[in-house]
């Protein structure tokens, strides 16, 4: 099986008003990885994600899923979306059923599964998202954070190979943000490829295996988080800031508080451990 689960080749896309959004975009997304896509507003992140599930069709170029070119017939798109799930930024765009159970069961029912299989998968999705207690609640009565979780359960109930999320932590309080990220880590550990678009550089730096930077409708950089965020010229060009943890670490090294050559931290906890290790022998 190919290492790449999704691939875009030379994508071009313009909206009906003539606005060019994607310009010769080519990139491969590795299977089983956590990938974060960053870029300023208007760079084409959401548009690109919608191409990956066939909601938008490029004016030129191709999308491949598991090395098979995406086709745009109804049957082909249904098959693609049973394997590549999408969670919209605004959960009210996604949720439409009267109750949580009806909402999460909608996708599996459309796949033609047996009643027993549907019940099994809905129960599993609610358990994974820690929302079983909400199963009989009207969807309109849920909090924003609960709606986000049910949107993810919607997708999980269909056992996708890939889950794509557009700004999954936007407008969430810190508690729900941590909950969502822990959930996405758990989903990834179960073997699902996770892709998200986000503006949060601190979260992306700590969470992702791979970072993609978009600007003017193309991917201008792809790499591991440390490699990407150490590129000051790239960050300036992309209107992005350096993650807090990396910025503090760099300044401590620059001022001689930490030695060169040590492992660069990805999280606050890792940074605190490094500071604790070297504080006794420095001016900290």
UniProtKB/TrEMBL annotation:
Membrane topology reported for the UniProt record: Peripheral membrane protein
Mainly localized where? membrane
Q: Which domain of life is it from?
A: Bacteria
Molecular function terms from GO: ATP binding; ATP hydrolysis activity; ATPase-coupled transmembrane transporter activity
Sequence ranges assigned to domain ABC transporter in this UniProt record: 6-241
Q: Where in the cell is it found?
A: Cell membrane
Q: Hydrolase: present as a keyword of the record?
A: yes
User: Mind listing the UniProt keywords for this protein, alphabetically?
Assistant: ATP-binding, Cell membrane, Hydrolase, Membrane, Nucleotide-binding, Translocase, Transport
GO-annotated biological processes: cobalt ion transport
GO cellular component entries: ATP-binding cassette (ABC) transporter complex
For this protein, the record's InterPro entries field holds: AAA+_ATPase, ABC_transporter-like_ATP-bd, ABC_transporter-like_CS, ABC_transpr_CbiO/EcfA_su, Co_trans_ATP-bd, ECF_ABC_transporter_ATP-bd, P-loop_NTPase
PROSITE patterns linked? ABC_TRANSPORTER_1, ABC_TRANSPORTER_2
Q: What does this protein do?
A: Probably part of an ABC transporter complex. Responsible for energy coupling to the transport system.
Name the family: Belongs to the ABC transporter superfamily.
Which NCBIfam families does the UniProt record give?
Answer: cbiO
What protein name applies here?
Answer: ABC transporter ATP-binding protein
